[in-house]
Amino acid sequence: PQLASVCWSLGVLGGVDTLPFRAAWRQLLGTDRAQEAAGGGDVVLTQVWQTAMAVRLESGECGAWAPGTPLARELGPVGATRAAALSLLPRARPPAVPGSTPPAPTLQVDPAEPPPPLRARPTLKVTVRGRSPSPEPTSLAPTPTDLAGPDTSSSPGERLLSAAWAAFSRGAAQVAGGAGGRGRGHSAYQRTMANALTAARMMHVMEDVSSGYPVDIALPALRVAIEADGPSHFSRNPGPPPATPTTSTTSLGGGGSNNGVPARPAPPGPPPPVVCGPTAMKRRHLAALGWAVVPVAYTEWDAVGTSPAARQRLLQARIAEAVAARAAQEAEGAAACRDTQ
Q: How confident is the model at residue 185 (pLDDT cuts 50, 70, 90)?
């Protein structure tokens, strides 16, 4: 369990391409440590699956399993995540011939060849609490095979990943109220944001799990994930102070502005708090899966006040900003792909 927590912590920090993470991850999946982690409970297993998702979505060596690639479409999101996680393990070398020099160990992994034991899984659509299913073409919803438990015929690493996925999906189902459960209670911030969306006639789903992660409020038609971030999503330590704009009179347009744009004073009050690591990792993963993430901090929501019109304007502006940023990022990525061809 401790080794699994170390891997998860490095994944939270975005360090899946560092040597310490690779060494710890290979030791976790490729040795008997996998059996120890499998007995660590759902909390540890959920961390293992989140780390596997970080490997697939954030590693520079696992682009073959990124969302939208042929291998990802063939294996499905669960199979692609398992394949990417196992691809970091060293490959078995052939037995040495007597009298010959054994080859030097290498850390190079060919991302074009997924491990053979993995099988493609059918795509599922998830309906959350009787609402319309999300348009996500490859859902991370649990299959009967996933919920049945680990496959005893596979390697220790594969069995650990199977158990990790089952724990991750169980947690998402409990949040959404699945499997006969009542689900977790919605926070006051979540309820008031949902009320503002209802007043604005915007279709939304509470506790959507079609991405695998439970999303506070999802707009399936726009693939927007609204996260009502309460105090538990932020650290107690304040962040760095905001940068103070310069007030130099040197500008391209002349006058007392910076490059023709008037300088804005720094916002009053203390610096904003720092987002906790798990929350930041969830945002990165949702964005990598194609969602436009709209985090609304409790301080920002409280500052708006109780005016329904002001709340609607805030959410509509933040949603439009997130959708535009995603479109610009997708256009930039498409242009980069054309340049490399």
A: low
The yes-or-no verdict on residue 120 having pLDDT over 50 is no
Q: List, in order, residues 6 or more apart from 338 with CB less than 8 Å away.
A: none
Q: Residue type for 216, please?
A: D
Give, in order, the Cα–Cα distances in Å from 75 to each of 9, 40, 155.
27, 28, 19
> Left, alpha or beta for 295 (phi > 0: left; psi -120 to 50: alpha)?
beta
Question: Cα separations (Å) of 126 from 217, 271, 336?
Answer: 15, 40, 33
What letter represents residue 72's amino acid?
Answer: A
Radius of gyration of the chain (CA): 23
What's the Cα-to-Cα distance from 102 to each of 26, 88, 94, 99, rounded to whole Å?
A: 21, 22, 10, 9
pLDDT in tens, 39-51: 778 889 999 999 9
Pairwise CA distance, residues 122 & 286, whole Å: 21
**Which residues are CB-contacts of 39 (< 8 A; sequence separation ≥ 6)?**
none
**Cα–Cα distance measured from residue 169 to residue 209, given in angstroms and rounded to the nearest whole number:** 9
Is pTM beyond 0.85? Reply is no
- Give the least confident one: 67-76, 98-107, 231-240, 300-309: 98-107
